[in-house]
Amino acid sequence: MKRKIMVILSIAALLAGSLSACGNSGGSQDTAGTSVEGTKAAESAQTETKATGEPVEGGFLTISLPASPKNLDPVKYTGTYESQIIGTVCDTLVEYDSGLTQIYPAVAQGWEVSDDGLAYTFKIREDVYFHPGEYQDGRQLTAEDVKYSLERSNQLSAMNRLDMLDHCEVTGEFEVVCYLAEPNAVFLTALTDAGNVIIPKEEVEGWGEDFGTHLIGSGPFALEKFELDQQTTLIRNDQYWASRPYLDGVVFKLVSDANQAANALRTGEVNIATSLSGEAVEVIRKDGVVELLEMPGLHVAYIYFNMVKGPTADIKVREALIKAVNVEELTAGVYQYGEAQPASLPLPPGSWGYDASLEATIPAYDPEGAKALLAEAGYPDGFELDLHISNTTARVKMATLFQAYLEQNLGVKVNINTSEWGTFSEIGASGEADIFAMSWTWYPDPFFFLNKIFHSNAIGSLGNGQGFNKPAVDAALDAALLTTDQDERAQLYKTALAEIVTEHPGIFYSNENVEWGVTPDVQGLIQRADGKVKICTSDINIWLAK
Amino acid sequence: MIKTILNRCLQIIPSLFVVITITFILTRMIPGDPARAVLGPQASVEDIQRMRETMGLDEPMLIQYRDYMLNVLRGDFGKSYSYNKPVLELIAGRIPNTLLLALPAIGIALLIGLVIGVLSAVNQGSLFDYVFMMLALVGVSMPIFWMGLMLVLLFSVNLGWLPAIGMGSAAKGIGNVIRHMILPCFCLSTIPTATFARITRSSILESIHGDAIRALRARGIREAIVVWKYALKSALPPIVTVLGLQLASCFAGAILTETIFSWPGMGTLIVGAIDNRDYALIQGAVLVIALAFVVINMIVDVVYMMINPKVSYEGGK
After folding, report:
1. Is A472 helix (H, G, I), strand (E, B) or coil?
2. Which of A221, B5, B90, B303 would bridge with A234, disulfide CB 3.0–4.6 Å?
3. Residue A257's Cα: distance from chain center in Å?
């Protein structure tokens, strides 16, 4: 008996010893606490790799993606990860600059818009060639290809990425006119989407269903090998019209776990890790060799109240809920490593439609005021609410804190319902959820946020699952599409935004940063608020220092 | 024996039929629209409706079922909408990867587990026995995700001996693939090793105290031979059963190990299919796993009959 006890004790000691030895490598566990310091770090943080020395040719850049690109056919792709690869293999007519403020020429070297906004005339560059493929051997890209690609997208795109196009007309070997059914100010933005890249007809028709794994374009790198759910290998296109890429090629690897992405950076198996989150951000921040690039992203994390049913249909209740939550504290609690900034409006500050003056109109943290308001609304003793979220760590943390605020400040009992994405999106879109939480990220043009989340025609989709419906908002949003003058549009979006926030539709609590880990040999990388890695364009050409 | 095998083969068909039907019904009962799952959060109502039509989801359930069964009988398991590829092609692409990981893992587990189990049984009550059974308990309880990350931190990041992610490439030589296999195989083998160790130990203990073994000892046969040849042989049936179960569950993949090490196996395929409500892919994968279970169980029964000719499934003589 005594022997048995001795044995058990000594084994326990052994185990304790071995576990503590592993402790330092998981060091981030120690950084608890909710200091707001981390969020300030983002302002002075790095967003570009410092170029040291003269560019040298050669090497393969390895980029990790957190989810697997499944199909590279521009009309079929549904996720950002595919668009990363499609955007490197193919070209669009126009592109956003790194600051995401200007649209500048790419395959189209210039364009003119008719006065009625219905006809866009594009002049195509005369030095663009497709990669050699199975069904064509690297021929020149002409206006016919533009017509083919854009009309194909308009007809077949699973996500309707060019729905505003009516038809195209080829008016010269290198000139094409795109006709819209109605004036639509986001046509040019839509043209920057990876769904609207220019592709050769022979390859699409030759490969048929398999075109998605044999993508051909005119971009800086050609698709060499697509290993589904493993990696995608691209090699240099010597004939690229913008600049000759320094890199021999690019490899996109699937690394779904953020901690493993950080590990792979440290072992050198990956040069750039996009979408770092949680502890992985802190690990890379503290790592002396690998660099962390972070900047505010075009992202909003929010809690959306049901506008039609349940207790939140009453505007006083909604205002009370907003007053009951301390957004700064919530952000610091959810994002312990400085990966996000507290927010207040449904648009990211990086969007040109953002109106900082509206921030003051959002109810501030005021627990007493919230309680009084709730009593006025007829719920002096609180009520029960069902919160629906998807099962990610950040969301669960937020829900727990939100539940605590409401319990403490209002006596409102929040039931947290966690589900995986498929179930969550079903519930969210159905209009049956009392409140749900999610995040939204897209182009800086306010159309892609406000129309999808607050326009009445989006009711039934996940964006406007809560039934927001205000004619004044619809009117402003519709009007903002009809003119291409950005200042006029900005004004209209500000009006829409003001009309939206007076309804207190939700708590727009954080803007997440774009967090990238980069090994020190990567030169010339510029981080973008939309999270895209641009490897070779007219003013970017990434190279690897030896 | 032939009769048994033939009987079993015939029984497979109705079993699989039941499996397909149950899976068909269950997948369609869980909440979540496949079209919405495939298209993502930014899809509009019209996009989703169009996708549903493409996927044939608006047809009545019975029509969908009939079409699916008719196709299966023709060997067509449908198309995956998240991958845009035939289901069989996807599964066939993943099984070799999964087996590449799972078979060595089970092989190692069997070898080590057997040895530890026998030694523990023979030295029942000793320090060796306690230590190793404790380790078996730890092995079975250890969270694989945590262990995988710890192994990577130690062997890849700190020591730099082994790669952290991926399958490696045969083009770079077989050594490259083996280096990529070491950590995931080790991770994957911990639970089976512990299982084999414990089952071997109990099984040997049972047989070693039996009359047959005592008789052998009485005849003066060396202890080592008594243990490793005779006791082990009569202890085999439960071990073979567990081995069969482990081999069959290989086909379901190892989702945790595959996720950590970015190993494209059946685990990530199936979980991804469920996330995306990819009905055809879920059904195809479940069918393959069910088939594996049924076939391997049959093989296990045949092996029993071979180990112990006294066992017969054909009724008394």
Report:
1. helix
2. A221
3. 18
